[in-house]
Design goal:
The complex is a heterodimer of chains A (about 120) and B (about 120).
Chain A lengths: L8 E5 L4 E6 L9 E6 L6 E6 L2 E4 L4 E4 L5 E6 L8 E7 L20 E6 L1
Chain B lengths: L3 E4 L2 E4 L5 E7 L5 E7 L5 E8 L2 E4 L7 E4 L7 E4 L8 E8 L11 E2 L3 E5 L1
Parallel strand pairs in B: 2-11
Antiparallel strand pairs in B: 1-3, 3-8, 4-5, 4-9, 5-6, 7-8, 9-10, 9-11
Classes of the chains: A mainly beta (about 120), B mainly beta (about 120).
Chain lengths: ~120, ~120
């Protein structure tokens, strides 16, 4: 399983752009990079996914350098409601050889983002 | 129209009891999961289940067993509850894809289990 390393916590003021970097030095060729967000007392929620270069959706952007050994989740102009734990996940591929495979999400420790008024 | 729903939301029980947590998904997904989030907020996979194939995290005690009456349900049964079982349990579902792309998973709201 590819291991990920993220900062344990980050603080940011409202309105600022927040960048959370995740290291995944042993990422496999077939692995995608996925980020989830978890609010207190809720289950994780998918934010964004990418393989290389840059991906952008209505919530965030994901920057992945050419070597893919790290990735950066960028949240533009954060608000208080963005206070949550953000998890970086790297794909671990099929678990058995049936041809169909089954994917398990392996969560690291996550980054606790606190947005300050 | 909740995508993944779990019941109950809170469960308080005594040591030694047997309890179940129910999970249902209305997304038509073919894979369901159970995760455990402990007091330190680490989220760990317990089981994944699809097409009648069960994959078990080897660290999960055999007091825990998933049961799937149909494709839309994956219930978690716990026998002889222990204090260390206290945690938040999350159910999730996804659609298995035979591609390189990871699939998005949808999580329930969680069940907070407290063993006293």
């Amino acid at each position: 399983l590819a291991k990920t390393t993220q900062p344990i916590s980050m603080d940011s003021y409202e309105g600022q752009e927040v960048n959370i970097t995740c290291s995944h030095n042993n990422i496999a060729t077939n692995d995608y990079i996925t980020w989830y967000q978890q609010f207190p007392s809720q289950g994780p929620r998918f934010i964004i996914q990418g393989y290389k270069t840059k991906v952008t959706n209505e919530v965030a952007s994901l920057f992945i350098p050419a070597d893919r050994k790290s990735s950066t989740l960028s949240l533009p102009r954060v608000s208080l409601s963005d206070t949550a734990v953000y998890y970086c996940l790297v794909g671990d591929g099929p678990l058995f050889d049936s041809g169909a495979g089954s994917y398990q999400l392996t969560f690291g420790k996550g980054t606790k983002l606190s947005v300050i008024p | 129209d909740t995508a993944v729903s779990q019941t109950p939301k809170y469960l308080v029980t005594q040591m030694g009891n047997d309890k179940s947590i129910k999970c249902e998904q209305n997304l038509g997904h073919d894979t369901m999961y159970w995760y455990k989030q402990d007091s330190k907020k680490f989220l760990k996979i317990m089981f994944s289940y699809n097409n009648k194939e069960l994959i078990i995290n080897e660290t999960v005690p055999n007091r825990f067993s998933p049961k799937s009456p149909d494709k839309a349900h994956l219930n978690l049964h716990i026998n002889s509850l222990e204090l260390g079982d206290s945690a938040v349990y999350f159910c999730a579902s996804s659609q298995r894809r035979v591609t390189l792309e990871r699939t998005e998973a949808f999580f329930g709201q969680g069940t907070r289990l407290t063993v006293v």
